[in-house]
Prior knowledge:
Two copies of one chain form a homodimer. The first copy, chain A, is mainly alpha-helical.
Amino acid sequence: MAAVHPGQHKSFSLxxxxxxxxxxxxxxxSRHGVRxxxxxxxxxxxxxxxxxxxxxxxxxxxxxxAFLQRREALWTQAWxxxxxxxxxxxxxxxxxxxxDLFDSWFHRSDYEACAFIRVLFEHxxxxxxxxxxxxxxxxxxxxxxxxxxxxxxxRDPDGFARQWQIVMMGSIIxxxxxxxxxxxxxxxxxxxxxxxxxxRSRSRARx
Amino acid sequence: MAAVHPGQHKSFSLxxxxxxxxxxxxxxxSRHGVRxxxxxxxxxxxxxxxxxxxxxxxxxxxxxxAFLQRREALWTQAWxxxxxxxxxxxxxxxxxxxxDLFDSWFHRSDYEACAFIRVLFEHxxxxxxxxxxxxxxxxxxxxxxxxxxxxxxxRDPDGFARQWQIVMMGSIIxxxxxxxxxxxxxxxxxxxxxxxxxxRSRSRARx
DNA sequence: CTTCTGGTAGACTGATCGGTCTACCGGGCA
DNA sequence: TGCCCGGTAGACCGATCAGTCTACCAGAAG
Lengths: 207, 207
C-alpha cells in the first residue's frame, strides 16, 4: 500500500478514466439534459467500461450532481464571472458585460442554453436533490450579480439582482426559442434597470 | 350509417372517452412535461383503455401536439388573454396586467410553470415537430403582446414585445426556482419599459 | 333476435432504462 | 517470476417505455 490517496494516480493527477467520464457527462448533459441521456451513452462517449463509471459514482443521480458542480466551475465561474471581470472594471459595466458575453454565446451554432434551467424543469418535485442543487446553482449566479450590484452602490442589491437575473434567464429562453438577438434586447433592459437605480453605465452610449 | 360525423357522438358532443384522454394528458403533461409521463399514466388517469387512446391518436407525439394546442386554448387564450382584457381597458394597462395575473399564478400551491418552455427544453433538435410547435406557441404569445404594444402606440412594437416576453419568461423561471415574488419584480421592469417607450401606465403609482 | 359500434381489460413485443456481475487483461512492483 | 490493481468488454437483470393485439362486453338499430 503506497502512500498515495485512494483514487489518486501515481502522476498526482486524476485517473484519465474518471476525467473522461466527467467530460463526457458534461458534454451530453449540458446539451440534452440528464433525463434524455442514458448512462450507456455517457459510457460510450467516455470510451470507458460501465463498471468504471459505477466505480466512481454510485448512481446516475450522483453523476448528475457532479455534472452540475462542474457546470458551475466551467460555466458560472470560468466563463461568466471571469468573462465579465475581464471585459470591464467598473461594477456597473461588469453587470452590462453579462449581456455582451451572452450575445456571443447566443450566436454560437452549438448554443445549448442554461443547463441549470434545463435540469430544473426535469424535476417537478421541489424536494428532489437534483432540483435543489439546480436552485442552489441559480442562487449562486444571483449572488454574483448581487455582489456586483452592491459594489455599484445600487439601492436594493437583492431586489436588483433578482430583476437582473429575470432578464438573464428570460433572454436565455428567448434565444433558445429562436431570437438570437435576445442578448441585445436584454442589454437595453439592463441599462434601463441601472438608470432607474441611479447608476450610469459606460455602455449606455453604445446602444 | 346515420348522418352523423365520424367520431361524433349521438348527443352532438365529443365522445366522453376522448375528452377524458385530453383532460388527463393536459393535467399530466402540464405539470411533468411530455417525456416524464408515459402513455400508461395518461391512460390510467383518463380511466380509459390503451387501445382507445390509440384510436384517437396514432402516436404519443400526436397526443403531445394536441396537448400543446389545448394548452394554448386554455392557458394562452382563456386564461392570459381574456384575463388581461378583463382586468384593464387601456392597452398599456393590459400589458402591465399580465404581471398581476402572473402574481396570482406564481402564488398558487400547484404552480406548474410554462408548459411551452418545459417542452421546448425537452427537445434539443430544432427540427423536431414538437419543438417547432412550442416555438410557434411562444410566438403566438408574443404576437398578442405586440398587438397590445401597437395599440399602445409603442415606437418599436416588435422589439418591445420581444423585450416584454423576455421579462415574462424570466419571471416564470425565477418563480419556479423559488422566487414567488418574481411577478412583482417583473412588473417593475415592465413599467420601466413602458416609460422608456414614452407610455405612461396607470399602474405606475401602485407600485 | 342479431348485428354493429365504441369501448374495456390487459397480455404481449421489442427496445431501452439504471444498475450488477463475471471474466479477462496489462503494467508496475516485490 | 508472480501477484495486485485499475481497467475493459459485455452479458445479464428487472423495470418501464411506446405501441399492438386478442377477447370480451353493453347498448342501440334493424
